[in-house]
Amino acid sequence: MNLRSLFTRKTATLTLAFLLTPSLIWAQSVESSLFRIDRINALILVVVFSSAILLYTRWAKQGKPLFLRKIPGLDAVEEAVGRATEMGRPVLFIPGIQELDEIQTIAGISILGRVARITAQYETPLMVPVRYPLVLAAGQEVVEQAYTEMGKKDSYDKDTVRYVAGEQFAFTATVNGYMMRERPATNIYMGGFFAESLLLAETGNAAGSIQIAGTAQAEQLPFFVAACDYTLMGEELYAASAYLSREPIMTGGLKGQDFIKMIIVILVIIGVVLVTAGVGDWYVHLFEEV
């Protein structure tokens, strides 16, 4: 090996070491630091998300008008209960077939409170079949509270909410039999539904009932859309509590989430444009660790 080649190899080694040292120091500092600088994008997202919810909640408490898109299915509830009152027939409400710890069941129980207040006001019979004991206890509590708030506690019947069956299709068969015998004027399905959704909705349709459904199970939505008069799709079920109550904390949370969704859509569109133009690698890297 001559002197020139030895000098060239040592120069290359030193240059490589010079280029790699800062990145090694950066990697070591990231691993040893209490503050993850590489995750600061997640911190920014949390701060923006929390700020949006707090700001909208404050505006709601101050009485500022916050626009909520109309949900026809919820607006039709009072009309449907009024129809049942005129016909002298009961209202059937099913809060899904899931346990109480499922968010769809909680949303359904929340809507049940609104429906129970209307049936109490009009003194219309209400029937709420459930599949689990905890849902039974929560449903009875909500319905009793609704009748008490409307000054109709004497009209409250503990059997309004009743346990039917723990097995999925035994529950469905029992409810379908009730529909054909009693022919309720209004059927309301709000919560998580699975293979029984079309069986319930078709039977209700055959019984001549006006039907309102809402679920976040995307695969069941086509059945409800086909067989029901009104359908709440996906997140409309979760927005129902804020829509019906107009309570400031719920309304602020709903508006804050909508604001963040709008920001995410704008960021996605910007990313698509940059990546399509071939200059979006740095932009994609910003969101890799979020």
What does this structure look like?
This protein has 290 residues and is an alpha/beta fold. It has eleven helices and six strands. The protein has helices at 3-32, 40-61, 72-87, 103-122, 133-149, 168-182, 197-206, 221-227, 236-245, 248-276, 281-286; strands spanning 91-94, 126-130, 161-163, 186-190, 210-215, 230-233. Strands 3-2-1-4-5-6 form a six-stranded parallel β-sheet, sandwiched between helices. The protein is elongated. The mean pLDDT is 87.
* Strand segment tally: 6
How large is the share of residues in beta strands? Answer: 5-15%
Largest sheet: 6 strands, parallel
Distance between the termini: 52 Å
Alpha-carbon Rg, integer = 28 Å
H/E order of the elements?
HHHEHEHEHEHEHEHHH
Give, in spatial order, the strands making up the sheet with the most strands: 3-2-1-4-5-6
Structural class: alpha/beta
Mean pLDDT across every amino acid position: 87
Give a quick summary of the entry:
The chain is an alpha/beta fold and 290 residues long. It has helices spanning 3-32, 40-61, 72-87, 103-122, 133-149, 168-182, 197-206, 221-227, 236-245, 248-276, 281-286; strands at 91-94, 126-130, 161-163, 186-190, 210-215, 230-233.
